[in-house]
């Protein structure tokens, strides 16, 4: 039994004995840490475990209380509100900021709270490399045959089988292997729109979507997005009625940076509207496997009866980012996407494709996923608890249902770029909100990555960012 489990059991015993009664406030995290001579992280984990058992609830800035009614004490501060619709952008240019931020993240030994990537130590890299080495000795892979579009048939079969296991029938002939999900998104966008076209996106939205729009000389229009329900379909419909929109790009499951899982009813509503408007939807599903709940989330593609949903995904967020293997299910645009794949990059390396296919077939992909899902869910609770404790009053945050990022709204006086620079001076990276929009609507927002195993270094980094935010808020 771990130290935090021992502490949780001890407190539970005291509650059952009546030492702590309904409504009583438990000693603070810091007090318990000092009294028991254990780390703050250990105390937080114990309290989170008790919360999961329904014995205690947290009230922001107040502490933990025994057996309060459900909903009286969420971990986060004030709830995030639905974003407001934003006027169409004349140009999209967030790539410079993103590139400079990513360079700072990868430079030196900075604590990667701002990283967009999952922690690679959780990935089975050695096993994949062994399969790649074995594939490299196969003389049949030395030509272009299995590297040309649509991709290696063995990997395509494994992808189709994976969808079937999750309740969605996919014809292997519809799958096109790409160089990561980024290429899949770019190819799909190129297939449905042309330079100068307007593309609807969520607000805030993952900057890879904005990069694709920027790269092709298109214009982005941001649509009001609820932090738990996803894109506002009525707001999207009003935009489509007022001006031509060539396509919509969304991330319905565990959206980066908000982390929500769009309810099935809204997914159906969005797909039905797209069919009525004859508007393609590019669906980014790279986080679909990283759910915290008990069931795999549905995708927009599963509700598509007209071939208008172009579904994109990859193994970069679940298995390895080093191999850069993704895929697209482009629906009615399948032939056009395959042609564009051939014209843009010609091939996708066959050895990484086969290595991943072998792993999927032989090495317990589901077991691997269960392990990282559990870790991310626990680390999400830890990150939320730390932000709740150490960030200034007025801080709000998202409630991720999957993935590995937390979206944090800071008090209005805080400038995220100033906070980013102050944190960087102390060897800590964060994701400033400017990267997730074509405007400055998220100037007081940041994104935090919690995929790395919790450590004293990460704990101190979060506390430091919270203190810096409090200074900027004055």
Structure write-up:
By secondary structure, the chain is of the alpha/beta class. It has three domains: 3-66, Arc Repressor Mutant, subunit A; 95-120 and 370-473, Alpha-Beta Complex (Aspartate Aminotransferase, domain 1); 123-365, Aspartate Aminotransferase, domain 2. It contains 15 helices and 16 strands. It has helices spanning 3-16, 29-36, 40-52, 95-106, 125-136, 153-165, 180-192, 207-215, 233-242, 264-277, 334-344, 350-362, 365-390, 416-425, 456-473, and strands at residues 56-59, 63-66, 111-112, 176-178, 198-203, 219-226, 230-231, 247-250, 281-284, 309-314, 326-329, 396-397, 405-409, 428-429, 431-432, 445-449. The longest helix is centred in the C-terminal third of the chain and has 26 residues, at 365-390.
Task: Choose one word for the global shape.
Answer: globular
Structural class call reads alpha/beta
Tell me the Rg in angstroms.
23 Å
In the CATH hierarchy, the architecture of the largest domain is 3-Layer(aba) Sandwich
Query: What is the subunit arrangement here?
Result: single chain
Helical run tally: 15
Residues in helices, as a percent range: 40-55%
Instruction: Summarize the biggest pleated sheet.
Output: 8 strands, mixed
CATH topology of the largest domain: Aspartate Aminotransferase, domain 2
Counted beta strands: 16
In whole angstroms, the N-to-C terminal distance is 44 Å
